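Recall the central idea of this unit: under ordinary conditions, the amino acid sequence of a chain determines the structure it adopts. In this exercise we apply that idea directly, starting from the sequence alone.
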Amino acid sequence: METTHENFESPQEKSGAPPGKSLEPLVEFNPRDVSQEVSWPNFFVVGAHKAGTTSLYFHLKRHPEVFLPSVKEPRYFTPEVRESLSLEQYRALYAGAAGYTAIGDITPFYLPKEGAAERIRKVCPGAKIVIMLRDPVERAYSHFLYEHRNADTESFRKALLEYEARPDRRGEPSQEFIEHGSYYGQVRRYLETFGSDSVLILLFENLARDPNQLLGEIARHIGVDPEFFVGRDFSEAHNVYFAPKSNAVSWAQSLKLTKHLPASLKLALRPFLFNMQKPPLDDESRRRLQELYDPDLTRLEELLGRKLPELRKTWR
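Accordingly, the structure predicted from this sequence is:
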């Protein structure tokens, strides 16, 4: 489709670094006007982190009317985030998208980053937005364990205490595991930018409980046939927790020694090489997080006009 868009320069473009090279985050975001023929996405799953977006990517990708690129998180509209794609890289991902009814971008960084909603609107003003929310206490702990695979309950407790003691560090990447769970401002930003009819808000609990129904809701929202998801098996878990059982396994992972092994063999070996159960969250940390998130959840419920007990699962 033909559109006039603004070319948002990524960190790679600004520095002249080769494509895909990680750089320190750059806060500046200087658009320039260009006109191109491009199949831009017409729907975005914008978050939240650790709320089922990886599963949505693989499930939606199966639909014959849906195009999703080979990169699950392009991050084009968040140039301040490491490993964001340049315009050329982003356009290349959608080279085969012409003719699909729904063309998507699933990047959970788009929800918490303040400028992302407006950047998306400037390029894709009619886009449909999907937001997945999860109990913020569970989400924070899952986020932390994902970033620190060998972490335990004590290291999480220390990180939480440091967050409370160092307000000067708020907004830093190391604090995102907590801050990404403050949903009220994030959701409000998308509602104000795109309007309530274009924003579908779903819950992680419902994805786990009835994925077929939830995927049908998304299908109707983005304009594709919801019947495709009826009766299909969505039991396979994606992006599950696992932590190395030994330093030797960690070393092998760091060198990517297993990347050439068949996927089936890696899955078969995983229970022998990795711990598959998360360490339990301690009661003190749970209470601190509940106190932190409870006022924000109350404001979110007022904004949406409905109670959200699924987001207080750990309160029970």
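Residues 2 and 37 are 5 Å apart (CA to CA).
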